[in-house]
Amino acid sequence: MKRSADLRTIVVGALVWAALASASLGVGTGLGGQVPIWLPAGVSVAIFGLTAKRHWPFACVVLGLTGITTFVASGVPWPFAVLLALASLAEGMICAELGVRALGGRVQTPEGARQVVGLFGAGLVGATAFAIIMLPIPLALPLGSGGVEAMAIRLFAHLLGIVTSSWLVLQVRQRIVQAGPSPGPFVTMELAWTLASVAALAIVLFQTSSFVFVPALLAVLILVTVRFAAPAPALNVLAVACIATLTSLGGRSMLPNLEPDPAGALLLVQTWLTLTLITSTPIAAMLATREGMAERLANQNAELEQNVTVFGLAEELAGIGRWQVDMVSGRQTFSAVMIELLGLAPGAVGERGDIRDLLLVGGETIFDELDRHCREPEPYTFNCRVKPMDGPERILRISARNDFGTGGARQAVFAVAKDVTGQVRREEALDLARGRAVRLAAEAQKLANTDVLTELPNRRCSLALLERLVAQAQHDSGSLSVLLFDIDHFKKVNDTFGHKAGDDVLLRVANLARREMRGGDLVGRIGGEEFVCLMPGLGANDARALAERLREAIAAESAGEGLPRVTVSVGIACLRPGDSMGSLLARADEALYGAKEGGRNMVRRVA
């Protein structure tokens, strides 16, 4: 899209350039007049200023061919036409580059005297470059007949054209392409009548034989600039230049009664016009800047007023209160919603004083929190419980920010508050329910994996752990031993002493087994009177020693407190390469069966 816009700018600009150049050349060659301003110079500067540099080669081709064609068609010999076109291109690119730098970026309206001076400097450099290139040409071309005088006339003509027409082109283009509502007419009726008055005064000036009217004309042009700001300097210069050109038709002097020599009169008029621009353009730029700032300020004030209104509505709708404390004067400002949240009567809170005395509960807490965060540079939030005189307790969530002075002392506190009683109550109830659910889940998990009587891991939990230990030991090439032991003749205990005594015996055996195991071992109950011991990292010899110690402890300490003495048979299996949980457990069970067959109260290991 940018490429197509640039190409359109170049083509349209070239057509405008050709029209202005043809008109200016026609006035000089066909009507015998003089043109004090070379308007096409400003058009070429505007084209290069509005076009991306990557498209400058195309612009050079289009403008170059347009210039050569226009000059040749107007009677200029083609060698000079080529030189004129090349000089115009150099002038346009130099001014555009320097002008963009003076404005600090892409083409925009100048703001302040510094940018205006920069633009004048850019125009002066470009116009000087054109005049120097054309200096050796002795032929009577438009704007002079060669030599130093021709160079001065060309310099002023191009400088005036660059400053006036480039600005007018940019303003017209901006009005064409800008979005939004129309900014109004470019030339108002009042400005049109004013320009007509300026033209009339210029007619009088050009017919007088005294310089007395020159300061008067300059003063009028400056007054017009003050009244109309931005468009006035360029339009003033164009109005006076038009009168000067009309006066010079037929080969006459622009100032017949003051300077009869046409070239000298032209140079004098150009000097006046340049002085007018130098004087009035900075004034117009500063006035335009002031008007722009005033307009932006008015828009910002209107937007601020709208935002305040919307914020007030949102505050009431959301139930958010505002509170401000001036730490220097002690003045406190409360919004109506804040007073309502605190449960206070509107007249109870003055601009000065301390609300902590007006609250049964919460006043001290609020100010304690503010004092605790007195050095906090970032916004902070806290909850506070307040108890109005005639209402239930409320929970307010207060977000505050400190404002510090240049010396680092806290000058003010800005805070907003919202009633979060319902939310906090729901969160508390949710936390309570969540905690209860976690406890119930933990209890359910424990019941699912724990033997109720002995509180040892049950069969499901023990076998699941054994499967993980087997996989880990196989992966790490480690050792793992498993003990299976059974209480001998346990049915006889139940039959003789009763099931209550049987349960107590199971519990006594479980505790003894738990005591004899190492810290990382696991004892589980996997059947009625059958237990398993998982011993990771333990080899065959150590496993047998531990099994013997377990057997002896149970035989020696199981009796007492009305319980009969019992013994256990123990089977040992040690992990082999390629073992699974099932094969390892099967060998332990085989060893246990061997201990029972061998007479019980003994330890056996599968070979």
Give the arrangement of secondary structure elements.
Elements (H helix, E strand, L loop, with lengths): L1 H28 L10 H11 L5 H18 L4 H26 L9 H22 L12 H31 L11 H19 L5 H16 L3 H16 L14 H57 L1 E7 L5 E3 L1 H6 L21 H10 L7 E7 L7 E11 L5 E10 L1 H29 L9 H18 L3 E8 L2 H8 L1 H18 L5 E4 L4 E7 L3 H18 L10 E7 L6 H17 L5 E3 L2
Parallel strand pairs: 9-10
Antiparallel strand pairs: 1-2, 1-5, 3-4, 4-5, 6-8, 6-9, 7-8
Helix pairs in contact: 1-2, 1-3, 2-4, 2-6, 3-4, 4-5, 5-6, 5-10, 6-9, 6-10, 7-8, 7-9, 8-10, 9-10, 15-16, 16-17
Q: Could you explain the architecture of this structure?
A:
- With 607 residues, the protein is α+β, with helices and mostly antiparallel strands.
- The chain folds into four domains: 1-178; 187-314, no CATH class; 319-424, Beta-Lactamase, CATH 3.30.450.20; 454-605, Alpha-Beta Plaits.
- Helices cover 61% and strands 11% of the residues.
- It contains 18 helices and ten strands.
- The chain has helices spanning 2-29, 40-50, 56-73, 78-103, 113-134, 147-177, 189-207, 213-228, 232-247, 262-318, 336-341, 363-372, 421-449, 459-476, 490-497, 499-516, 540-557, 581-597, and strands at residues 320-326, 332-334, 380-386, 394-404, 410-419, 480-487, 522-525, 530-536, 568-574, 603-605.
- The strands form two sheets. Strands 2-1-5-4-3 form a five-stranded antiparallel sheet, with helices on both faces. A five-stranded mixed sheet has the order 7-8-6-9-10, sandwiched between helices.
- Helix 18 (581-597) links the parallel strand 9 (568-574) and strand 10 (603-605).
- Helix 6 (147-177) packs parallel to helix 10 (262-318).
- The longest helix is centred in the middle third of the chain and has 57 residues, at 262-318.
- The radius of gyration is 51 Å and the shape is elongated.
